[in-house]
Design a protein that fits this description.
By secondary structure, this protein is mainly α. It has 5 helices and 2 strands.
Length: 79
Amino acid sequence: MKVRNEMYLTPEIKTALRKKRGVLDLTKSEAADKLGINRLTYGRIESPNRNEKVHRGTYERITQWLALDIDEQLAEIQK
């Protein structure tokens, strides 16, 4: 059985990325840095008009970042 190395981001995940970035007042570049991905890649990922596939590791980092508590992240940014 072949393991999929690429995954599609759902529109809900893309919306969640945009909302979280806005709440944390991060630029796309800052969000990309937090996720360990290239700024241009992040821009493509966040675009609602693209059906973007990402590597499994990137998908996991995105979903883990979205699962983190916003209040804790805001406190970390303000340090």
